[in-house]
Amino acid sequence: MEVSTEKRQFVEHLQAFRNILGESFVFTDEESLNNYAHDETENLHFLPDIVLKPRTAEELAATMKICNAHKIPVTPRGAGTGLSGGALPHLGGVLVSFERMNSIDIDERNLQVTVEPGVITEVLQNAVKEKGLFYPPDPSSRGSCFIGGNVAENSGGPKAVKYGVVKDYVLNLQVVLPTGEIIWTGANVLKNSTGYNLTQLMVGSEGTLGLVTKIVLKLLPHPTYELLMLVPFNNLEKAGEAVSAIFRAGFTPSALELVEINALKIVSSFVDSTVVPVTDDMEAHLIIEVDGNNMDVLMQEMEAIAELLTQFDCGEIFFADDAQQKAELWKLRRRVAEAVKLDGYTIEEDTVVPRAALPALIRGVKELGKTHHFKVVCYGHAGDGNLHIRIKKEGNIYSLNNPNVIPALRALFELVKKLGGTISGEHGIGLIQKEYMGIMFEDMQLELMRGIKRTFDPNNILNSGKIFDQK
């Protein structure tokens, strides 16, 4: 029986990849393919044809040259914790997993670290903390997500309100281009005004322009003290108003998180915790943290913030007295997404608006829920105006073209645009948001983005179809 040309080419490519990586790191078995066919985006499942696990940039470059020459789709993947489908191989082809690329090299003298993309974010944070250093970006999935995925999505987390997001710490990147060349995007310096900023172009590009193989991050000295308080509010909008007031009064907390009461009830039950008193007259809580090196100053700051919040119909303020209470509060906050998802709130959006527009966003989301017949819970990084909105719709299945979901999401994003915000603060666009990009951008802006993509990836093989469709 004659073997088809397509089948013969597949076998040839497979052998070429095995020659480069070694047979143990090339996978085509059903179990492996299924393991990499999904992420944390609800109900999306796409099988790759091959899974590759390179160890070095040189191995990856050699595989990319083959893929580019034969126009084989390539999907880069970190830990699979994404919520926008950005690491899903919806076109089949090759999936590149970075899990073997996991070294850390700390430069204490220059307060820098060079890290490979497969390092778990919390592992990196703990490694530098042992040296008295601090890497602030801390997404909720920090215990499992990879730093490479954080760079691809420009992740943030609770500390972003004071310390910034991933882009504020990336100094330089080693990148394998879709055509197989290896480049460094910048220099390991704190200031750089030499040519176009390719480093920042790569950050947040969702793996569509190049494959990051080394990341140089700046570090900070680790703060000595952290104080935490929980503030209940009788009114959700008042909680939103209080957020802006804190900053207008001259305070910059190291974290300022909002959790709506329904989300708090769900997660408290989920982790079997009673650390937060939940009463029927409460609608939301703010988690407020300050950090620094002078305990007296921090105590004064917390007292002043507490006094300010009495103007916004808040209840009795709870101060975390010890490390255990702090850890318990943060555990509740970090597991909210997991808990509400299991409770049926399967659609998550991470809209962001200017801080002062937060009450209007909260009010608008509740009104949209009534209009479009969905239940909603809100939580997130209120200090950034970044509100995570979880939607539960009866009989809903999260798909790209679900007629029951699209009108509600379009209305939500149009509201966000009207309020001066944007549709994703840290999760990215990936597959599930790309049809809404026209709400945020004119055709000319999207065509400029497509032009950048064509320059880096002339054969459109790398994470093709993410963020936008190439024309």
Outline the structure in words.
The chain is an alpha+beta fold and 471 residues long. The protein folds into four domains: 5-97, Uridine Diphospho-n-acetylenolpyruvylglucosamine Reductase, domain 2, CATH 3.30.43; 104-221, Uridine Diphospho-n-acetylenolpyruvylglucosamine Reductase, domain 3; 225-337, Alpha-Beta Plaits (2-Layer Sandwich); 344-440, 2-Layer Sandwich (Alpha-Beta Plaits). It has 16 helices and 18 strands. It has helices spanning 5-21, 30-35, 57-70, 121-129, 147-153, 160-163, 198-202, 236-248, 261-270, 295-309, 323-334, 336-342, 358-372, 406-418, 437-440, 443-456, and strands at 26-27, 50-52, 74-77, 94-97, 104-107, 112-115, 133-134, 170-176, 182-184, 211-218, 220-221, 225-233, 255-260, 284-292, 318-319, 347-352, 375-381, 386-392. The strands form four sheets. Strands 15-12-14-13-17-18-16 form a seven-stranded antiparallel beta sheet, with helices on both faces. A five-stranded antiparallel beta sheet has the order 5-6-10-8-9. Strands 1-2-4-3 form a four-stranded mixed beta sheet. β5 and β6 (112-115) form a beta hairpin. α8 packs antiparallel against α13 (358-372) and α13 packs antiparallel against α14. The radius of gyration is 23 Å and the shape is globular. The two termini are 40 Å apart. The mean pLDDT is 94.
